[in-house]
Amino acid sequence: MKRFIYFLTTLLFLFIAVVPTLFTLFSSVIQLRGWGGIFSMTNLTLLGKSIAMSSVTAFLSTLIGLLLALILERTFSERKNWIKLLLIAPFFFSPYILGVAWSDFFHMLGTGERFIYSPWGVIFVWTMIFAPLSMLVISSQLANIGPNMEESALLCAPYQSVIIKITIPLLRPAILSSFVLVFIMTISEFSVPAFLSVRVFSTEIFTQFSAFHNFSEAVAQGWIIISVAITLLFLERSYLTDAPFISVKTDASKGARPIISRPISTLFHGIAYGSIFWMSVIPVLVLVFQAFKGGLSAMNQAIHVLAPTMINSLFYAAIGALFLVLFGLVFAFMSEEDHLRWVNLVLLVTFSIPSMIFGMSLIYFFNRPFLTPIYSSLVIIIFAYIGRFTFITGRLIANSLKQIPTPIKEAAIMAGAPPWTILFRIIIPLIAPGVFAAFLIAFILNLGELGTTIMVYPPGTSLMPIKVYTIMANAPQSTTSAMTLVVLVVILSSTGALFLMRSILAKYSEERCCG
Predict the structure, then answer these.
(1) Average pLDDT of 213-242?
(2) List of domains in the chain
(3) pLDDT class for 124, splitting at 50, 70, 90?
(4) Interior CA angle at 440 toward 438 and 443, to 5°?
C-alpha cells in the first residue's frame, strides 16, 4: 500500500509540474522557435543587468541574514520564536505589496523617487523581502551548532575572533546556500521591477508573452534563466536538498544559551527590534497613511474592487494548501523514512523554475481539447500552486520528521504495533506542528502568488493579486496603497483565524484526551 501511494503521488506530481515544463522547454529546442535573436546584444545586456542585480541582492540579503541569525540564536533566550516570526514576516508578504509600500515611502520623502525607480531601488526592495529568507537558512543551521565550542573559545579569545574563526566557517554551507536561493528567486521575480519601471530579463520575458504574444521567444529566453539557476543549484545541491531552512524547531536550539556579554546583547537586541520596525512595521504604516490620507474614499473603492475576489482567493489558497500538505507529507516520508534523496533534488529543481516559465508550460501543455476540464477550471490554479510550493511543504514536514527520536518508533515496533498504528498514533501527532506550519505557509504563499497564476487563471476567475496587479499601473497612488493594504489585512486576518482554529482544536483534543 505504501509503495502504491508513493508511486501515485510521484506520477501525479510528474504530470502536474515536471512533464509540462520539460515538454515545453524541449519542444522549444527541437522546433528551434524563438532562438533567432536570443543572443542579441539587447538580451545579453538585460541578462547581465539581471545577474548583477540578483548577485548584489543575494550578497546584501545574506549579509543581513547572517547578522540577524547571529543575534537571534546567540542573544535571545526568551521570546525567540516571536522575534523570529516578526523578522520573517516580510518574506510572506507578496513582493508587489512591499514594492508599493517602499515606493510610497520614498515618494513621501520627496527626494527619493529617483532612487526607488532605479535598479538600486529594486535591489533595496528585494533585499527587504529576501533578507528574512537568508536569516531562516542561516539561523536554522546555527541552531544546530551547539554553543559549547564558542563558549570554550571565549575563555581565551574576544567574541569577534570567535565569530570570524569558528562560527562563520561552520556556517559556510548555509551562507552559500542562502546566496544561491536568493539569487534564484530574484532573477526570475518580475513584479517589483515591473512596478518600479525597471527593465530586467524577467520583465522582458513577461512582455514577450503577454504584450507581444511571442510565446516561442519567451520560452527561449526562459531557457537562459533556467540554465543559470540549475547550474547554481547543482553547485550547492549537497546542502540545499537537505537544508533545514524552514524547520519549526530544532532540538539543538533548546539547549542554546546566549554566549555574549550583556552590553553587547542589549545592542544586538536593539538591532533586532530596529530591523523588525524597519522591515515589517514601516511598510504597513506607510500603506495605512497613504490609503487614508485623503479620507475613506480610496479604501472604500479598494474594498469595492477587491470584495468579489476575496472568497475565490481564500478558497483557492485553502484548497491549494491542502493539496500541498498532502504532496509534501508523502514526499517527506519518501525522503526521510525511505531515504529516497532524489525526491528532494527533483522538488528543488522544480522550485527553481521561474514562475513565468512554469505558467507558460502549464498553458502550452494543458491547452488541448482533451485537457480542457483542467485548463479552463480552478484545477489549473491548484496545479500552479503545487508546482511552485511543494518543495517548501515537503522540506518543512521532512524537518519535523527528523526531530522524532528514533527510540520512540523502535519501541513501538518492538511492542508489535502495526505500521498504520505507528503512523496515526505516534508519527502524525508528533509532526502535527510541522504539518500545521506547512499548511499555514502554503496558504499565505498561495494567497500572494502572482507570477504563475497571472499566466494561467481561467476567464471569469478573479484573484486578489491579479486584480491588484492589473489595476495598479493606472490607478491613483492612494488607491494602489489601499488595495495592497486590503490584501495585507486579508492575509493577516486569515492567518490569525487559522491560529485561532488550531488553538481551539488543540484545546478540544486535550480536553478529550484528559476526559
Answers:
(1) 74
(2) 32-290 (1.10.3720.10)
(3) very high
(4) 105
